[in-house]
UniProtKB/TrEMBL annotation:
It comes from Hansschlegelia beijingensis. The lineage of its organism: Bacteria, Pseudomonadati, Pseudomonadota, Alphaproteobacteria, Hyphomicrobiales. InterPro entries: Acid_CoA_mut_C, Cbl-dep_enz_cat, Cobalamin-bd, Cobalamin-bd_sf, MeMalonylCoA_mutase_a/b_cat, MMCoA_mutase_a_cat. Belongs to the methylmalonyl-CoA mutase family. One of its GO terms (molecular function) is metal ion binding. This is (2R)-ethylmalonyl-CoA mutase.
Length: 656
């Protein structure tokens, strides 16, 4: 009898609850068996659409959900009792789960019947994705609240999805992905264990924690990594926590294959990359994914269209239903090659886990900047290998000649989120507030605040707040006032190797020295991340390479307003401002930065922009006065540094 296939998911959501609802219904009709909801950045970081940091970000990388009315629209006509819903949400996981429960109960569902997953992994947000809000201790407490609530009230729900996916996107090696994900799980289980649950309740907690991993192009290594995950999780839960039930110790994971390796150049090649990566998490029966969601072939170009998502879904269906991979036992059992690789990864991961344990655990390692610094270093090595040609990427640094692709041309080659979705979201927010009972809202928020201060579980007060009409921003503001906010270490404190970037780096250093001499002081670059985009990998690598080329670098991390960036440029007296934006919000945010620079007399300071920027947007940015635009095809960081020197020298000559 063949095994049942894994859950087929497509990570989706954009523009508005109405548009996202249409997309979900369409994907379900095409054979998708589980929902995977992408939320926009304001929702992920606890802001309403009318907040200053939400400008340009509403609906860009996911769907905006500001209140129960939005949740009703998002799942209109979709019976939540019959769904298996994954929600990629972390800092505000307790709130979005509360809205989901409130909506399900409105539909007549019993909360105990709901199936799905809240990602709810805040540690990887500090390390890689940047949608954290609160400091580590209260963040861990919120994770604990969700776990304890769901274990009792929603036994079919996975309350936490330890997410190593974004660690690999931030440059993690297989060993780092193993060690940092398992260290995160240990931190969470230690937090739950401190509440003194019964052995049965703790066993249920362990059983409901799942993982969300990444699969890259090193095919054999990725299979071995997943088998190592299975063994190490069984070992940790048995030996560290005394879980005796083998079923409770099973490593349960979902996967999205690697988006980091998707190329803007010859993007049709990404189809093969995605399929190879999918095989790595489906071929080995003993380490097979429980759910798979695939990126679209053109995500390095912009937001994929419904047809692009359908193509990714069809790849899963063909693999599951047309091949025989579900009909056999594990084909790698007894392989000397595979066993040796698994043992090597396990040994190295145990050593890294021991180092983290000696520091006091994952939270201490985050606060010390250890894990972030290691990720920045490994990502720098990866990029240097691509620049030098030691790591071949087909179509990027080898086999670059190409025929024009008929798949990626034309104005409709990617999905575009219009800027007016933000204005419309603000109007919906105003209408929602106008019709609600303000006294009920005030009472609900007061109860939420009391629960937070008194260390009571916030889930029931949050569900009550959802039903009373509280908004995402109000929930976030209430807990910010009690818990405070946090800025994680950037990880760029130590320089990369002097050899990074190849021999050309020496020439760039000479150019920086000459330009600094001509300008009368050290050439200074401000690297800024405006808005809520927390994907800081590119900005970090630019900052590291610029510093290693001899620039003086100003980099203050993520989540800055255009006003803060312009103020920093003014106070620091920088020669060039570099903006990194990967959320698709580049047009409104850059426009505001440019306007503020002109008003502050900085119109002679050149601005450069990097991100996932379509050609038509690149033309618009340059029309605003942007000096240069860099997209994923510009992988040579040293060449970018040489450009920046020339741009700064040109601006200096004009000023003179």
């Amino acid at each position: 009898m063949p095994d049942k296939p894994w859950l087929f998911r497509t990570y989706a959501g954009h523009s508005s609850p109405v548009e996202s609802n249409k997309l979900y219904k369409s994907n379900l009709a095409k054979g998708q068996t589980g929902l995977s909801v992408a939320f926009d950045l304001p929702t992920q970081t606890g802001y309403d659409p009318d907040h200053v940091l939400s400008r340009g970000e509403v609906g860009k990388v996911g769907v905006p959900v500001s209140h129960l009315g939005d949740m009703r629209t998002l799942f209109d006509g979709i019976p939540l009792e019959q769904m298996n819903t994954s929600m990629t949400i972390n800092a505000t996981a307790a709130w979005l789960l509360s809205l989901y429960v409130a909506q399900a109960e409105e539909q007549g569902a019993d909360r105990s019947s709901l199936q799905g997953t809240t990602q709810n992994d805040i540690i990887k947000e500090y390390l890689s994705r940047g949608t954290y809000v609160f400091p580590p201790a209260p963040s861990l407490r919120l994770i604990r609240d969700v776990i304890l609530f769901t274990t009792k009230e929603m036994p079919k729900w996975n309350p936490m999805n330890v997410c190593s996916y974004h660690l690999q996107e931030a440059g993690a090696t297989p060993v780092q992905e193993l060690a940092y994900a398992l260290a995160t799980a240990i931190a969470v289980l230690d937090e739950v264990k401190a509440t003194n649950p019964s052995e049965e309740a703790f066993g249920q907690t362990v059983q409901r924690i799942s993982f969300f991993v990444n699969a890259g192009m090193k095919f054999i290594t990725e299979i071995a990594k997943m088998r190592a995950f299975v063994d190490l999780w069984d070992e940790i839960t048995r030996d560290r926590y005394g879980v005796t039930d083998a079923k409770s110790r099973r490593f349960r994971y979902g996967v999205q294959v690697n988006s980091l390796g998707l190329t803007e150049q010859q993007p049709e090649n990404n189809v093969y990359r995605i399929l190879i990566q999918t095989l790595a998490v489906t071929l080995s029966k003993d380490a097979r994914a429980r759910a798979v969601q695939l990126p679209a072939w053109n995500e390095a170009l912009g937001l994929p269209r419904p047809w692009d998502q359908q193509w990714s879904l069809r790849a899963q269906q063909i693999l599951a239903y047309e091949t025989d991979i579900l009909e056999y036992e594990d084909i790698f059992t007894g392989s000397k090659v595979m066993d040796a690789k698994v043992e090597q990864l396990k040994e190295e991961a145990r050593a890294e886990l021991a180092r983290i344990d000696d520091m006091g655990g994952a939270i201490a390692a985050v606060q010390a900047g250890y894990m972030k610094g290691r990720l920045v270093e490994s990502n720098a090595r990866r990029l240097a290998a691509i620049e030098s040609g030691d790591q071949i990427v087909v179509g990027v640094n080898k086999f670059q000649s190409t025929e024009p692709s008929p798949l990626s041309t034309g104005s409709d080659s990617i999905q575009v989120v219009p800027e007016h979705v933000g204005t419309e979201a603000i109007e919906r927010l105003k209408a929602w507030k106008a019709q609600r009972d303000e006294a009920a809202v005030a009472k609900a928020l007061a109860e939420l605040a009391a629960a937070a201060r008194e260390d009571r579980n916030v889930m029931e007060p949050s569900i009550a707040a959802a039903k009373a009409g509280v908004t995402t921003g109000e929930w976030g503001a209430t807990l910010r006032e009690i818990f405070g906010e946090y800025r994680a270490p950037t990880g760029v404190g130590r320089a990369a190797r002097e050899s990074s970037g190849g021999g050309e780096i020496v020439e760039v250093r000479k150019a920086v020295e000459a330009a600094s001499l001509a300008l009368g002081r050290r050439l200074k670059l401000l690297v800024g991340k405006p808005g809520l985009d927390g994907h800081s990998n590119g900005a970090e690598q630019i900052a590291v390479r610029a510093r290693d080329c001899g620039f003086e670098v100003v980099y203050e991390g993520i989540r800055l307003t255009p006003a803060e960036i312009v103020n920093a440029a003014l106070e620091e007296g920088v020669h060039v401002v570099g903006l990194s934006i990967l959320s698709g919000s580049h047009l409104p945010l850059v426009r505001e930065v440019m306007e503020r620079m002109r008003r502050n007399g900085l119109d002679d300071v050149p601005v450069i922009v990097g991100g996932i920027i379509p050609p038509e947007d690149e033309r618009e940015l340059k029309a605003m006065g942007v000096a240069a635009v860099y997209t994923p095809k510009n992988f040579d960081l040293t060449a970018i540094m040489a450009d920046i020197v020339r741009i700064a020298e040109g601006a200096g000559e004009k000023a003179a």
